[in-house]
Amino acid sequence: MAPMSGGTHGTGERHERDRFPASVYGQGSEPDARFSLANERTFLAWIRTSLALMAGGVAALAWRRTGLALTVAMLGALRVLPAYLGASAYVFVALGAGCALTVVVASHRRYRQLCRALTSGDDAADRLPSGRLPTLLAALVAGGGLLAIAVVLGTLR
């Protein structure tokens, strides 16, 4: 079995201590690259999701402040929505930031769990609990959608 990689430092020798995260890769054996890379791709997909959630919250605030002329041109029926958002745009920013933070923390935790399971060499990956992150995220986004509907319907009266 080849030693764990990390860097050669010009000597051709690899140093285990350079592998990130050291708490995961400093023990056990090197996992199959396919599984390790799949785990990293999944983690990065969750990071992209968190960035999209954060951008959605910021977009609500920008929409409230500027009205976004693009929206007026493309979606004429929604051109009055910025007036209805009012201060609740800040709620959407907080909701987007909260969802993004939840996704980042939960996905990093899951990534580290799977890395440890892959390097330990046993069947620990099969015993990991299924991720609750998709369910939690769906509930938070659905709650935000219901909040948006309530805001719009409440201001139409």
TrEMBL record:
Keywords: Cell membrane, Membrane, Transmembrane, Transmembrane helix. Its main location: membrane. The chain crosses the membrane at residues 43-63, 83-106, 136-156. It holds the Pfam family DUF202. Residues 11-20 have a biased composition (Basic and acidic residues). InterPro entries: DUF202, IM_YidH-like. GO terms for cellular component: plasma membrane. This is DUF202 domain-containing protein. It comes from Xylanimonas cellulosilytica (strain DSM 15894 / JCM 12276 / CECT 5975 / KCTC 9989 / LMG 20990 / NBRC 107835 / XIL07).
